[in-house]
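Margin note: ligand = magnesium ion.
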Amino acid sequence: MSDTVALQAQNLYKVFGRRPKEVIKRLKAGESRDSLTSMGTAAVIDASFDVKQGEIFVVMGLSGSGKSTLIRMLNGLWEPSAGSVTIGDTPITGIPDKELRAVRTKHVSMVFQHFALLPHRTVLENAAYGLEIQGMSSDERRQKALEWIERVGLKGWEQKLPGQLSGGMQQRVGLARALAADTDILLMDEAFSALDPLIRREMQEQLVELQQELGKTIIFITHDLNEAMFLGDRIAVMRDGRIVQIGAPDDILTDPANDYVAQFVQDVDRARVLTASGVMEPARSVITATAGPRGALRTMRDLQTSAVFVVGNGRKLLGVVRDRDVMRAVKDNEKDIMSILRHDTPTVGPDQHLVDLFGISAESTLPVAVIDDENRLLGAIPRVTLLASLGNVPSTTTEIPVVEPPVTVPVEAMTETLRETGGDEAVADAVADGAAADEETAASEGSAN
Ligand SMILES: Nc1ncnc2c1ncn2[C@@H]1O[C@H](COP(=O)(O)OP(=O)(O)OP(=O)(O)O)[C@@H](O)[C@H]1O
Ligand SMILES: [Mg+2]
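Resulting structure:
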């Protein structure tokens, strides 16, 4: 996503009814929307926001909250009662129809809830429709439309009529038509709402994929919070014509602006919204490779854990060592930890959704390691944290213990082995190393926040 603003809404109002100006004046003076219904319905009240180029901006709200009215003002289909819309550098509010149409043709396409396909035209002709309006030659638009039909998975269906297609397929035609028009902004009003859940999920995933590839700016309207959370880079929550909160999905979920939003987000599928970096804990059982097997054993004993992460320079994750291997190495007087290093650490990137973590977490007793692009250990997600975050239980370590994988070697045996093989003096370094690794995390996390 770039910082360039693709579309800007400034203090937009839309009032249906006899006296829009009077309604707006009174709303501005603080009167309530409900008290003004005899003069008009305030469908959108004082909406302001910027949508960045390449962003998926979701507008969410219950039926009647003003979403469709808002989106229709964004592409100039409806004139605002007050306020203005700017697309790229071009203010579109109040400009002559002809200019408005030109801006729309060039910059904005729309995908509707009920497909809005032309029933007597083939899939191919429907997909090419926007290009026809743009005045493209028939060969060229056929070529382009074919490309997009294939891209959305409808190859072979070009000559069918919309009525011969399932709902999901018809919506793909709508999407192909919008994409073929090659505008930089896509407006989608409840585009997936009529689809059954599995197809809908598929379409959501495909949309995200296409967006990442094509860098389109998408304004997506939905009343489905899960959809909003899955798709949105940012979400605007609407209630009774007003935008009550704009924020990233995580913000809206963890820091709702008011009770209304809080209630709205209560039922959201957190696993699809929260990310690894949002729930991870500082990794506690970490040693540097130089700590050696003795350092590892000492750390395991102190933290009563059966596994510790081993990091190298720059806190890069090298792997993990297990208590039995460490015991054996210490007894054998082995100095190099690399000989017992395992590489079966479950790892994820910071942006991975929790839903992707369950399988990984289930396959291993180890906490999942969160690593960045350069393999640096950012934090860890023990299973208990994963579960706590789904229930919206605060996962601070003071309230829920971070459960380390339990020891498989008795702690007494560890202490005994350490004593037998050379007292605790050699261990002091290792602990210092381990602590240093921890401090480093704390420092890097501090700076990241
Ligand atoms: N053409 C119109 N004339 C009069 N009132 C309208 C018109 N269009 C919408 N409204 C009113 O404006 C308010 C907002 O409607 P809008 O269609 O924008 O809501 P929405 O959030 O899109 O709802 P839904 O989820 O049902 O599509 C509603 O109270 C609606 O009755
Ligand atoms: Mg609507």
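Confidence is low (pLDDT under 50) at residues 394-402, 425-449.
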